[in-house]
Amino acid sequence: MDVVAALQEHLDRLTFADRGTDEVTELLIAATVEWATASGWRAYRRARSVVPLPPPYEQQFSVVDVGVARPSAPPLVIEVDHADRRRTLDKLAAEAAAGREALWVRWGSGRLTVPPPPIRLVPFPVISRRGPSGARVHSHTANTNRPAPAHTTPQGSYSIVPMDPDIDLVLRAYAAFAAGDIAAAVRDLAPDVVWIEPDEFPDGGRHDGRAAVARYLQASYDSWRELHSSPAAARAGDSIVVVHRVHGVLADGTEHTAVATDVFTVVEGRVVRMEAQAGG
Fold it and tell me: Is the pLDDT of residue 153 over 50?
C-alpha cells in the first residue's frame, strides 16, 4: 500500500474528544511513530533535518517531527502541523531534494492546503469548537469504514481513552518541553513550585518558583542538538509518577541517553512540587 494511504488509514482510527491544539499534534506524532514501528521501520522523533538553522546557529540543524529509516526504500520525513507554515513547506522541499520522501500531516477543521509536489499531503480532519475556558478544542471519531490494517488490534480501532486530568496536565508539559516550548511547559506550574532535580544532573538540585524552573528547562533543552523524549505516567496515590527516558545527540555531538523518575504533586490543576531521581 502507498505510504500516504497507509498512514492516513492508521491515523483515521484515532478517537479523541475535546483535546487542545498541542495535544492533538502530539497524539498525531505519537500515532505516526507507532505506524512506522508497526511497519517494521525505525522511527525517530525530532530527527535531524538537512536544513541548517539561521545565523548564528548555522553549524546546527533543524529537526523534523518524525524521521523513518526504511531498509529497502528512501527515508521518510514527516511533519505534523495545525497551522499553514511556510517554514514547514521549505523544510520538506529541502528534504525531498535530498532524496527523502516528504509527507505533511495537516490537521484542522477547515480546508487544508495541498502542498506542491513532491511534498505529499496526509489530511486529518477534526471537529473544532470553543471549550469552557474559551480555548479551541478538537475531536475526531475513528473511521470504522476502512478495513483494519494487519498490525492493529482485533477490534480494528485505535482509541485515546479519557485520561486522568492530572496525568494529562503533566504529559502536556513533557510534550511542550520536547517541542522547545518552555513557556507552555511551565504554564501549569504553581508560582511557588518546588522543583528538585538529581544533584548529578547539570544544574541539578532545587529550583524555587516558575521562573527558576523555566530557566532550568531552557538550559536543559538547549543542551541537546537532537532530542527524543518518551515519558510514561501513572498515578500513585496523590502523586503522578513519570518514568522519563530521553535520548539523542547533545550539543557537542555526542550521543546520550538518560532516564529519570519524576514525582509530581498536583493541587487544583497546578503542579506544586516535582522531585526527580536518576534512573527508572
Answer: no
